[in-house]
């Protein structure tokens, strides 16, 4: 028991160190090695954070879905913990994406925000999972909160493709695609150094994400352990 | 079989309560109409622009009316812990889901069948001949709203800031329906027929089917929670 | 109908409302559930009724575990909470009709009327339940469970609002119910009456089962176990 | 404190819940309000508390009519309805603090703590009232009215959820309250206890005052008037 | 004097409850933001038109958010008949009115102070320098809303279809305020200063004063009923 927790701790520590190294490496690469973008210049370097952060967010929401499903099926609190932790991180990373994007958008588009389909979609994701967290926090009984949230975690995830579709059609089927579409970014003539930078920082973000996830999950576990202990002592 | 029998019992009970004192129906109807006026005042539209905004206004009116209706959906079960009485009984949760969605649907359709023509008159839009198509779109949209709404109403049932939380959870999930119905209506109004609106219609139908099935499947857990 | 409870436990936050609770009841037993305020009586009844999920332990009816999804079993369990579980906006008779139909029992007008007559509400049959007095609601609940005839009937402090004749009604109903081989568990502070009816007494204290014996007269063991909770001011 | 009620009447729909009710109480009187279910006890108490407007008649405190706008008088009237009139989301002590402050009474921490100690809730002082058991809420109400010390205290079926020691608490409190020259009116079906405490008994039946006498032992007149409502199955 | 003391007590109690679990505040904030999106989907506006519609959108968002907030206003009093406990106490009804309006006002202002800047960013309206004026207008409008809203919330307190009835009663009464604020904002946004907006502003102030006084005066009867 003792040893196993120790080893877990050590593993987690190593994960953290790895994440740190990878992120730093990614930063160096994207800031120093990778050449500035032909059209956008230095600003474009934000992409090396932008894309990884949103992709980690997607991953996070998928984990929420898995955790919720497992919880409803097995009624195991650990799954609920996972879903909860993932939801919080997902919101965090989505918010990051939006912030980075806005910072990027100001110089390139001249605006902080535009109603481009993809941006809108991101914002909606943020709202859905913010609602998820609100729902959790506003139901007294833990078990009830857990299963209610699980339902939402499933509904929300299943709804994402539909939302995605509708939002994109709304922009394409309806009015002519605006010039501001992010995917208009010069994807064709990507410099190999750009790709490597992107991959490295992506790996960094993944490691960071899982490190944070493990921490957040641990916090949840500790809460339960504290409760168990206090129950044993009978306060 | 028992599923349907029980659903019927519950639905009859709700309809009876509603029939007794037509609160919800009347208030929803008046509120829907009222909203049209509020919107009208809010952005004072030149008559020609109304036609473009018509679907948005209509559907927003339905959305908010419906949401307030949903806040009422489980009221009778909330007083005196009647929900516990139902959970205690040999009631299939799926039946509860079907009954409540059906009840909600009936209310909404009644309201809409009055508000839409009224809207046409108030903002004297010509194209009466298009009403059938529009009703179809509305029907599909409303179905999706009621199904998803019932689920969200159920999961927010025991939450604290219920009235606020319900729409907060519901609206983002509803966005496909909102977009689909409104765009669909717009196209029908503009072109006078479903043309490329078909794509939206498909989306709507898909949405309805998906969430109806999900609802029946997971409502056990929904209501236990 | 046979009830088996193994190691049942319920924790609220940091507090065990019920713990290490074992019980086996055989058909026709009338159990008096006694204990001071906050002992865990209501919690136990809610758990048995399946209205709140247990933190640990299992409840079995005739060997089949009682889970959230065991629909059929539920029809066998009744909880008589005075002045609750009735629709205010329906009349007395409509309430009875709804529930009998839901439980698939005889919901013929004659059956309902005779039930109402028994509890002395035939004149109020067409009044909204919300307009009835506290005691009348309790009487209506009695009529309701008389019609639904559950194999396991749980009562939580039924004496509170009943007048003399109401008490007679209740007690005769309960006696008859047990006589038909059904189990009755009644939580009450009205010790004298509870002891008179029961053929087995449980004493809960701070969530623990302190005492569990079949009735005998005289009953020194009970006196001893319960003494502390009796009012000084006599019966 | 002197209470005078003249020709008080309350109609609900087509039904007289109370009619032709006259009463005069002088300081320090303890009145037991008896009667079968639906007699009109709760209605009378609500009227006296000014929570529902009378259909006819006047209520006077020390000669001043009690109208909806008589703010000062209200401070003199207390209604102890077990497990009601408390904020679920506030802790026990916060409830007491709020109400004492509202009534402009001593809301010092020491006063509140001692009150809680008396009713045996000092360990639960910091729990939300919504998490207390039925009896605990009732005990808290006792503490509340002990602190607010109203000149006219109305009680509606207080025995229902109290355990033995709780009953002692209540009765000692009520005795002391009368001894300080305050009026107490208690509606209850627990005839034996009510008679023991009271020095005057009223019997309501179908909204009419059937019987009104100061206590005497033995009391054949009372036996005669009340006999019909007593349970056959003895005390 | 007691009036203010009691009002303070009640307000402190409500703030404590809200602080405990920031439900209402957070949910209202998110919901307000959400509404901006919903509106944008409904009538999807070309960037240039947004400036014209901005005030209307903002105000509708506040209106609906606030209404749902009002549905919560007396929640704590509704459970366990706590309202009876208050009516039983020597509490000046006016104090209850002041406390509730103040509480509602605080919530709304907090929400608005976040939503307005967000709105500016989302619809990238340039004129940041106008925000102070617009905040003033919003403040006046919100005050009117809270005062009137508290009265209506109290009236519909014991009604059955409360959530529905509240806005049904409130909105028609609110229409002057809505009009005044929206038109006022529009002018400020167009001309860059109060100019002929003053007239509307006066109307707003007058409205607030009138209803505040009326409220304190009639709240006795309102709440007794
Ligand atoms: C608030 C602002 C922004 C948000 C919320 C946002 C969101 C997103 C999202 C969700 C993706 C992933 C799309 C997918 O793969 O499904 C993405 C990718 C991308 N974004 Fe942004 N973005 C924002 C601003 C910008 C700006 C200002 C630029 C550059 C002008 C930009 C350029 C890109 C590029 C190049 C990609 C990856 C290439 C691609 O997947 O097509 N984004 N953004
Ligand atoms: N919903 C809840 N949340 C937190 N604690 C609770 C809850 N319900 C009950 N408790 C606690 O559980 C314990 C047992 O409560 P319970 O209602 O079962 O007691 P009881 O035996 O019914 O008491 P009474 O005789 O007063 O009804 C009490 O300490 C109570 O504070
Ligand atoms: N809100 C109401 N609407 C209509 N009728 C009512 C209402 N409240 C009470 N009644 C009727 O008034 C009569 C007296 O009711 P009340 O609650 O005063 O009786 P009670 O003496 O308290 O009875 P119990 O001993 O059961 O509490 C009853 O017939 C009841 O049906
Ligand atoms: Mg209890
Ligand atoms: Mg009563």
Structure commentary:
Helix content of chain A is 80%, strand content 0%. Chain A has helices at 2-33, 47-74, 77-109, 117-137, 142-174, 192-233. In chain B, helix 3 runs antiparallel to helix 8 (162-191) and helix 6 (93-122) packs across helix 7. Chain B has helices at 2-20, 23-42, 47-73, 75-78, 82-88, 93-122, 131-155, 162-191, 197-224. Chain B has nine helices and no strands. Chain C is of the alpha/beta class and 235 residues long. Helices cover 34% and strands 26% of the residues of chain C. In chain C, strand 9 and strand 10 (208-214) form a beta hairpin. In chain C, helix 4 packs across helix 5 (134-148). Protoporphyrin IX containing FE binds at residues 47, 50-51, 54, 97-98, 101-102, 104-105, 108-109, 113, 118-119, 122, 182-183, 185 of chain A. One magnesium ion binds at residues 41-42, 156 of chain D.
Bound ligands, named by name, code or SMILES:
protoporphyrin IX containing FE, adenosine-5'-triphosphate, magnesium ion
The overall strand count of chain B is 0
Global Rg of chain B: 18 Å
Number of helices of chain A: 6
Report the total helices of chain B.
9
In this structure, how is the largest beta sheet of chain A organized?
A: none
Apparent shape of chain B: globular
Unreliable stretches of chain B: none
Distance, first to last CA of chain B: 25 Å
Structural class of chain B: mainly alpha
Q: Give me the Rg of chain A, rounded.
A: 20 Å
Arithmetic mean of pLDDT of chain A: 84
Average pLDDT across residues of chain B? 87
Helix percentage of chain A: over 70%
Biggest beta sheet attributes of chain B:
none
Q: List the quaternary state of the chains.
A: heteropentamer
Give the largest chain-chain interface (CB within 8 Å): B-E, 40 and 39 residues
Q: Which range does the strand content of chain B fall in?
A: under 5%
- Poorly predicted ranges of chain A: 174-182, 184-188
